[in-house]
Design brief:
The complex is a heterodimer of chains A (385) and B (267). Chain A is mainly β and 385 residues long. Chain A has one domain (2-226, 323-384): YVTN repeat-like/Quinoprotein amine dehydrogenase (Methylamine Dehydrogenase, Chain H, 7 Propeller), CATH 2.130.10. Helix content of chain A is 14%, strand content 43%. Chain A is built from six helices and 28 strands. Chain A is globular and about 85 Å long. With 267 residues, chain B is an alpha/beta fold. Helix content of chain B is 30%, strand content 22%. Chain B has a seven-stranded mixed β-sheet with strand order 7-6-5-8-9-11-10, sandwiched between helices. In chain B, strands 1-2 form a two-stranded antiparallel sheet. In chain B, strand 6 (96-101), helix 2 (104-120) and strand 7 (128-132) form a beta-alpha-beta unit. Chain B is globular. Chain B starts with a strand and ends with a helix. The chains are: A mainly beta (385), B alpha/beta (267). Chain A binds chain B through residues 115-116, 131, 133-137, 157-159, 163-164, 167-171, 173-174, 176-179, 212, 363-369, 372, 376-377, 379-380, 383, and chain B through 1-3, 22, 31-36, 41-43, 104-105, 108, 136-137, 140-141, 145, 171-177, 179-180, 208-210, 255, 257-258. The structure holds S-adenosylmethionine (SAM).
């Protein structure tokens, strides 16, 4: 489930069809996704559960709105032209993707579950993806900075890697300090040398990403309810992860510039309707992050997107639009009225298939160390006797 | 925990060298699986003083922890039973050297071996240590950017099957990480008895823009080279079996992309 908004277009993606809706003209189009053109059919992997489990569904507009991409079936990347809805390319990816984003120049970067990142050219839409970098751990987020000089990747261990771009074989720094997987990274919009990150350890961290220096850590997890945490643990249990977690994992991290000195930060969580709102101001070397409020949404958000200073939240039942009033986010009733038709379409289009990444974020560790050490102890004790 | 021997001349107890038969382990560990490995979240919190316990630490007031007055500069990747560490220790008494090994029992053997050597030769072997870790995942957790001067890949696991090639310890992505922890002009030594793996390593290192092969003629002055053939247990095994030995040595160079851009700016 995914959606994206640019100019007057909204694109919504369900499992195998895409809905394009024009907010002004209210014209709607539904396109079925093409079959993957590939000689060898894609077999379900038996080997890595990581790969088979989760199907990423992602749609996104390019920054200029000219194109949108759809990544729905496993390993398939479709690129469309917004005006004509023409399918420009239908390319195969090496592995199932975990994050797909447009670059400022309309090229596409894909991060995948095996830990690799690929660059797909838009000007050469039939060219295969080109390997940029690889982690030995599933990638959960990736971004190329606005100046297109750096590519930043975050993984299921605790690592955030900053590589040069396009010479991505050259690693500039690591931002190390998270104690669990990193689900989200984002550059602070009003101070583009600072990176924000969050994931499974209940903290929001800020980095001078060029040096990897940690600037500030904000602990937020005590703001969340225990019952939400319970829900996380129940879900994990259903997937045979018995070891309980003590912190709700972050699902989305979104930053929106308010003015020259301030941005707001929104954080949402798996198995939770809560959204935390912070304000970050960064004047010179003085980074200040202030907690503003907790917003309770109707449902757990599937996706959040900024559009023209509003926050659009995609949920199971509907899309809801919020605005910032200086302290918190409130429902923008006017705008919500205007998207009634869209919401009706969404409710018929939506098939209730809500795959969650949650179970594969956590590791099933196998321990052979303890056993060995115990046997060694026994051996040495026997010897003494 | 460890066996002790009574040393008559010195009238002290020293530790016996460990016996390999107790430390054998299946040859290949999956480097991609989620092993239970303890590792520091970042180099800042790595406590090296416990590994080089005879070196007197200094107190870092900024971080309020004890640190060594120098950095580890040589790393033996997949050090196996530790033969190279023992050899390098005496050749480079002033450098800190660490072996990294993923197999529990094998790394434990090396740890016990070093402890025994230190107790038998009290002023020696203080500059070597072994850590159980997965070097394909955790090098940036231990080392700062550009910290390392030498890196050794001796007789790495060949992983013959095509499907296992991604387990090989040298590939395009891992080389970026090695280049990150290596200083400019640092040296990477590779040695193997498997021709196919030799060609694989040479090919990957050659095409990587941050490494440059050092021609054989230029290696004669490096006293390490001759030790690469026989120091390690695997090297000795290959000799016993009359196997081939292929050597390739590379230098970490600065980024040609940045250099070309600088030239562009100047002109
Ligand atoms: C064939 S042995 C060679 C050992 C030693 N260098 C020698 O020459 O005797 C390769 C060693 O690398 C270790 N190894 C493989 N992958 C590793 C990894 N990802 N991290 C650390 N050690 C690894 C293996 O456990 C094995 O002991």
């Amino acid at each position: 489930m995914s959606f994206s908004i640019r100019n007057s277009h909204v694109v919504l993606c369900n499992n195998d069809s895409v809905l394009i809706y024009n907010l002004d003209s209210q014209i709607r189009n539904i396109i079925a996704l093409p079959k993957l053109e590939s000689k060898n059919e894609i077999r379900a992997h038996n080997r890595e559960e990581i790969e088979t489990f989760h199907i990423l569904i992602c749609v996104e507009f390019s920054n200029d709105g000219q194109y949108f991409l759809v990544c729905a079936n496993r390993k398939q990347l479709c690129l469309f032209k917004t005006e004509t809805l023409e399918l420009i390319s239908n390319r195969k990816m090496q592995r199932a993707a975990s994050k797909v984003r447009f670059l400022p120049n309309n090229d596409i970067v894909v991060a995948d579950k095996s830990g690799d990142a690929y660059l797909f050219s838009t000007s050469k839409p039939n060219e295969n993806g080109q390997l940029l970098l690889g982690h030995l751990s599933m990638l959960l987020d990736i971004l190329v900075t606005d100046d297109q000089k750096f590519i930043i990747s975050a993984d299921r261990d605790e690592k955030i890697r900053v590589s040069m771009f396009p010479n991505s074989y050259n690693i500039l720094s690591y931002c190390l300090g998270h104690k669990d997987f990193v689900t989200n990274i984002a550059v602070v919009p009003h101070n583009k040398s600072i990176l924000a990150s969050s994931g499974g350890d209940g903290t929001l961290m800020f980095w001078d990403f060029k040096t990897g220096k940690e600037l500030l850590t904000v602990y937020f997890h005590e703001k969340l309810s225990q019952s939400d945490l319970l829900k996380v643990n129940e879900t994990l249990k259903k997937h045979n992860l018995e070891e309980g977690v003590t912190v709700s994992p972050v699902k989305h991290l979104k930053l929106l510039q308010l003015n020259e000195e301030n941005s707001i930060i929104l954080i949402t969580f798996y198995c939770s309707n809560a959204m935390l709102v912070y304000r970050i101001s960064a004047e010179e070397n003085n980074l200040n992050v202030k907690y503003l409020s907790l917003v309770t949404l109707e449902q757990e958000p599937l996706e959040c997107q900024y559009h023209k200073n509003n926050l659009w939240i995609l949920m199971d039942k509907k899309i809801e639009i919020y605005k910032f009033n200086g302290e918190t986010l409130i429902i923008d009733s006017n705008l919500n009225m205007q998207i009634q038709t869209l919401n009706e379409l969404w409710s018929t289009h939506y098939q209730g298939l809500n795959q969650t990444l949650l179970p594969i974020l956590y590791k099933r560790k196998f321990d052979n160390l303890q056993e060995y050490q115990e046997r060694k102890k026994l051996r040495l004790v026997k010897k003494d006797a | 925990m460890i066996e002790f021997l009574y040393n008559h001349t010195m009238a002290t107890f020293t530790m016996a060298l460990p016996q390999k038969k107790f430390y054998r382990q299946r040859a290949h560990s999956n480097p991609i699986a989620d092993h239970c490995i303890e590792y520091p979240i970042k180099p800042d919190i790595m406590d090296w003083t416990v590994l080089y316990s005879n070196i007197i630490p200094i107190f870092d007031t900024n971080r309020s922890i004890k640190i060594l007055n120098k950095f580890v500069e040589f790393v033996d990747i997949g050090c196996g039973y530790g033969g190279l560490l023992v050899t390098l220790s005496l050749m480079f008494p002033n450098n800190l050297i660490v072996g990294m090994e993923i197999r529990v029992k094998v790394s434990d053997y090396v740890i016990d071996r070093i402890a025994a050597l230190r107790s038998q030769f009290p002023d020696q072997y203080q500059n070597i240590a072994c850590i159980r870790t997965n070097t394909m995942k955790y090098l940036p957790n231990y080392f700062y950017k550009g910290q390392l001067k030498k890196m050794f890949f001796l007789y790495p696991d060949p992983h013959f099957k095509k499907a296992k090639h991604k387990w090989r310890i040298i590939n395009k992505s891992l080389l970026a990480e090695y280049a990150y922890v290596l200083a400019e002009n640092a040296i990477v030594y590779t040695m193997t008895d498997v021709k196919d793996l030799h060609e694989w390593m040479v090919q990957h290192l050659t095409v990587h823009p941050l490494f440059l092969r050092i021609p054989i003629e230029q290696l004669t002055s490096d006293p390490i080279i001759e030790k690469l053939y026989e120091s390690t247990e695997e090297g000795q095994k290959v000799t016993r079996n009359n196997g081939d030995k292929f050597l390739a040595v590379f230098r970490r160079i600065s980024d040609p992309y940045l250099n070309s851009k600088e030239e562009f700016l100047i002109t």
